[in-house]
Amino acid sequence: MHFSIRRARRDDSRAHDWLTVDRLVFYSGTMIVLYVIFLAVWARASHGFTDSGFSRPGFDLEIFWSASYAVLHGIPVSQVYNQLSFEQLQQSLFGKLGHDGFTPWLYPPTFLLLVVPFALLPPVVTYFLFVGVSAFAFTVGTLRLSGLNRVLDGSRLSWLLIVASPCVFVPAIFGQNSLLTAALAALAVYWIDRNPVRAGLCIGLLVIKPQMALLFPILLIAARAWRPFAVAAICAPLFCGLSTLVCGTQSLHAFLINSRIARETLMDHSMHYWLASPTTLAALRVNGIPLDFAYAAQACVALLATVAAYRVWKNARDVRVRGATFFVATLLVNPYVWHYELAWLGVALACLTSIGLEKRWLRGEQLVIVLAWLLPAYEFFNRVAALPQVGPIILLLTLLIILQRVRIAPEPNA
Description:
The protein is about 70% helix and about 0% strand. The protein is mostly helical.
């Protein structure tokens, strides 16, 4: 009798699990149709992406390609980091830039070294190749970390659920590197216990976008993962040294100068940035909150996210829980996050979806996951819609449901 009651309660809880595999597939297919419609309308309005009054797909990839062109054609690296010179170079290569806002090279020498081969191919070919390889690496890394394909019994639908996500579509539209960095981070978390050397190498390579790796040293200490820590501590300086050797020591100074310009121009005073940035800083600044108070609030949220991630990594053994916590906390810690950086959120959502489908959904999880899944699209269109900046609220809710999962279901699952 007691067994029958428990089984009935379990079946009743399952009845409230509306985020099923079938619905996930339906939502993914619907998004693909919407992507096609959006691109068709965009292409028609911009006369095949030729109208300089419109932005075009791969705009950020054009920045990478221009930097590569400069290096391959002997243009001094200092000219790449010089805003006026670099913008003139872009215009000479791609014509009038149909994009509001400035377009300087804001990346460290490590990423400049990575993109050097880009201009060996035509820009269109480079765009599709870079996005394709990045999306493939992102999907592989996400599926390995989340185990979503295992939960779906090896079904290829797991690939559809990842690729169709707005977390992939938005960075793919820009030709951004966030899919690549998210892939490196996902594989690093997956390999920390399985292959510490590979994990350390992946973490070390994240110096191409160092602000996205800030939490790794703290969390590796929490997990007592000393071998990945040591490998990363060797790999990162070697990569930085190689890039400095190729690009010159002046590139480091120029990068720091451009970082300061980006902070003063974008983070501190740009409505264009605030509307597309899911950060606490942006949400407060867009509502007219003074700069010092906004930075103080950002620091408080960053501290809370760091402490939460540290505790999860110290106590949890489920690699999916660790991964979800790391990716969400990283987005909460950083004050400089664009909509395309939400590719990192996609990895966390895949981990949470895998856990929810394998075990059962906890109260509130399904709604938060759907809202977070849609967040990149919301941020993408918000520069035009100018709706409230809800990004940090959704990210905090996502972190909350992870902590709820750890509290209610603490059993290890390596």
